[in-house]
Amino acid sequence: SWFVDFDPVRAKMEGRAPEGMNEATAALFPDALEESELGWVPKGWRMGEVGDFARLRKGTVNPGIQPDTVFEHFSLPAFDDDQRPVIEQGATIKSNKTPVPSDAVLLSKLNPHIPRIWLPGTSGRNAICSTEFLVFQPTVASCRELIYCAFSSTAFIARLQQLVTGTSNSHQRIKPDQVAKIEHVVPTPTVVKAFESLAAPLFERVHANRLQAQTLSTLRDTLLPRLISGQLRLPEAQAATEAALSDALQE
CA dihedral defined by 215, 217, 222, 223, rounded to 10 degrees? Predict the structure, then answer.
């Protein structure tokens, strides 16, 4: 709502205090909108392009030449499953991949009518992704939470769908360089910094919750049959659950 509907600005225009922020943060927003090529935007903000706040990372690696190295593999099936990367050795990965730095946001270029925007959790040094993902990093005056929210907006997804090539609904793609040229409002650096301080802890909590949910699901599938068969007693199951959750929270 900060960068699409401009709720804090509209609240100040109506004489209300913006919700979900303190006075210092509210003071960063103007109390007026001005007309631009894309419509009304907060006064003092400028119209620019996605490339002004998100830098496209290029280049590929071949995991197969490191057969014993363990990789975090961010693939399309992994996203569709539970948004957790697959942990696998280089020997099992048969094609080139794109490196995923710790500050990355992943955007699928395949079939944008099915939005796949991925904000990875804490990525290891051997994090890679399918070349069907575009890897973006924040510019100096940006943050990855801003990129993620911008890419997730209805207006941005609609614009992506206008850029597709290919006639088959199952094999439509967008050209990487076109994404960087999509017009987008660019907030001031102080607003971006304030947004990062509020949004980053929330996204970290989402990642932790997803990790915990996966751990509990794995435990259920592992322990329940043993409990039913009598191979495992309840106190032992409780101890195993507590240990697994503790390990998950430390990742």
Answer: 90
Per-residue pLDDT tens digits for 75-102: 999 999 988 899 999 999 999 999 999 9
pLDDT 10s digits, 106-165: 999 999 989 999 999 866 679 999 999 999 999 988 899 999 999 999 989 999 999 988
β-sheet with 54-57: strand ranges across: 54-57, 133-138, 105-108, 117-118
Number of domains in the chain: 2
| 100 plus 159 within the same structural domain | yes
165/76 same-domain check:
yes
Whether 183 and 205 share a structural domain:
no
Q: Which domain holds residue 97?
A: 54-187
The reported pTM is 0.82
What the block records as the tokens of 40 is 């009304």
User: How far are the Cα atoms of 38, 159, 169, 178, 218 from residue 182, in angstroms, in the given order?
Assistant: 11, 8, 22, 7, 41
Question: Which CATH number goes with the domain that contains 75?
Answer: 3.90.220.20
b/e map 208-221, b = 16+ CB within 10 Å: eeebeeebeeebee
CB-CB contact of 135 with 109 (8 Å): no
Q: Is 45 exposed, middle or buried (0-12, 13-18, 19+ CB in 10 A)?
A: buried
